[in-house]
Please model this.
Amino acid sequence: MTHRPRIYLAGPDVFRRDARQHFAQLKTVCDKLGLEALPPSDGMIPSAVNEAEIAQRIYEINMGLLQQADGVVANLAPFRGVEPDSGTVFEVGVATARGLPVVAYGVPQGSYADRVKASQQTSREDLGPLRDANDLIVEDLGLPLNLMLACSVKFAPSAEEALQAIARAIASKR
Model:
């Protein structure tokens, strides 16, 4: 008997007040699709452990889960700014380096450059590149995220649709 495909649920959802219920809902969707949900660790570690050790344990647990995964569904919604959560981006990079399919959700409509323009002062001289408030070039390629993310993942409008897409992607490889 083969195992159900294991899907790592990447994203800043572990920080939600209702994280347990949120992951329970995603697990229910996974079960219906014949997938096994692998939610990230929230660090259920004794409080007597120091912060550096807690962080290291969470990292090791989540890296272990990523090593078990057959695919990743990632919440790449803006997190404390116009960019996705950096931990989630790291996890997407690990998955991509392992050759796993990744489907992202939570990404707003429109381009990354449009979101930067809406969030801060930008400028463009003549036909030159778009620049942000720090005079750094803003990637303006019409993509929803930085090209390294946009070119390495598939996008879905919701978590449920992302799980459906990852199930199809894994099934097509079997």
User: Anything to note?
Assistant: Residues 110-143 form one domain. The mean pLDDT is 94. The longest helix spans residues 51-68. Helices lie at 19-32, 51-68, 86-97, 112-119, 147-150, 159-173.
